[in-house]
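Work Package 4 report. The design task specified in the project plan requires that, given a folded chain encoded as structure tokens, an amino acid be chosen for each position. We show below one input record used in the internal validation round.
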């Protein structure tokens, strides 16, 4: 028995991170200063994007992207039911209508065929989610968007550092959104970012982040056409982000190493379906999700939690929530997403997990599966 609880995700903060944060605290700017732009420039350059705007969370980044994409009352936006609820909140908060499309069974990402079936005259955008760090079928989605005059906002909160056909995520869609929550690849405590190559979106994002304030000629003058939000991020957070970014390649390598250990260990028990990684991508492995072929999932989760293993489920299908059932969705609407959900268990995966931790999880999973089969 492990006496230490192993969560499904955890940040890794070292002394350097602490030193740079303390240094920023003693500087003239603790918010809206030089660290924000420096962090944005570094992420943009890492991902191969022209522009980046850092905000207070992944959720506010998604909302901002929807707003500057021009999504408004009655516009339809197509996305996946297997995502965090924040993906959909962004659509609804600007008056848009979320239109869900079922997933592919292999990658758990939105199925381009299903997207095509959902396009109407009111469709304005598509929000694919790079689930677990595995990029969605971005070429197909881009093609569908282009042929129908739609905007692609990629929810890449799981996929910082992932690659699609040799290209870094962040440089492919019209806008790409990242989160810097502590369970994600790098953290700023709370934080998020929108990347784009489009100068118009970029300028609008900068204004939207700061109450929609348009500055005047004199320093005290400003104008607000539409009510906005305070979605700013602090310099303290961005200093942490800059320091964390230096370790991103190592974090991803370690995540991939742990995923390989899991893959090797679970190749045998036929009961376990391991995650798919298509040849065309490099997953950033935010999550490692196994699926059970026939066993009942819930008791196995409870047993693993009793063994101090913080397994999780990503995600309860969005259309199970009352906020989407109010839009007319019902259980049964997305059979593939629902089948996936009934089988899915996210195992602990984060860079500071030791090999011993990984092996402890492997042994526990194998032993409970063996006992039940
Ligand atoms: C984490 C996450 C978000 C929200 O990010 P926050 O920074 O927590 O607001 C949105 N979408 C997905 C897929 C996420 O994993």
């Amino acid at each position: 028995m492990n006496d230490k609880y192993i969560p499904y995700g955890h940040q890794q903060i070292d002394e350097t991170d602490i030193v740079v944060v303390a240094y920023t605290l003693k500087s003239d700017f603790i918010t809206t200063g030089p660290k924000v732009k420096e962090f944005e420039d570094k992420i943009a350059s890492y991902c191969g994007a022209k522009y980046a705007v850092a905000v207070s969370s992944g959720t506010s980044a998604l909302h901002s992207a929807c707003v500057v994409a021009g999504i408004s009352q009655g516009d339809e936006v197509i996305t996946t039911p297997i995502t965090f609820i924040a993906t959909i909140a962004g659509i609804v908060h600007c008056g848009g209508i979320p239109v869900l499309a079922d997933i592919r069974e292999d990658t758990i990402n939105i199925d381009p065929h299903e997207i095509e079936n959902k396009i109407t005259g009111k469709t304005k955008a598509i929000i694919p989610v790079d689930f677990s760090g595995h990029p969605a079928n971005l070429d197909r989605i881009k093609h569908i968007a282009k042929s129908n005059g739609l905007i692609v906002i990629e929810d890449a909160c799981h996929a910082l550092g992932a690659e699609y056909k040799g290209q870094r995520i962040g440089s492919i869609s019209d806008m790409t959104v990242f989160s810097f929550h502590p369970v994600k690849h790098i953290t700023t405590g709370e934080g998020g970012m929108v990347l784009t190559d489009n100068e118009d979106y970029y300028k609008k994002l900068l204004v939207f982040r700061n109450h929609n304030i348009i500055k005047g000629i004199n320093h005290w003058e400003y104008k607000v056409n539409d009510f906005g939000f305070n979605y700013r991020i602090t310099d303290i957070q961005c200093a942490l982000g800059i320091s964390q970014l230096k370790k991103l390649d190592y974090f991803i390598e370690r995540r991939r190493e742990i995923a390989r250990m899991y893959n090797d260990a679970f190749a045998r028990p036929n009961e376990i379906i391991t995650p798919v990684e298509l040849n065309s991508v490099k997953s950033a492995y935010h999550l490692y999700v196994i699926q059970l072929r026939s066993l009942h999932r819930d008791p196995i989760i409870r047993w693993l939690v009793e063994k101090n293993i913080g397994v999780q489920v990503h995600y309860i299908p969005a259309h199970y929530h009352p906020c989407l059932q109010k839009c007319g969705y019902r259980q049964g609407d997305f059979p593939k997403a629902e089948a996936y959900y009934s089988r899915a268990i996210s195992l602990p995966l984060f860079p500071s997990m030791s090999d011993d931790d990984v092996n402890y999880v492997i042994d526990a999973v194998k032993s409970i599966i063996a006992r039940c089969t």
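The two ends are 22 Å apart (CA to CA). Validation will be extended to a larger panel in the next phase.
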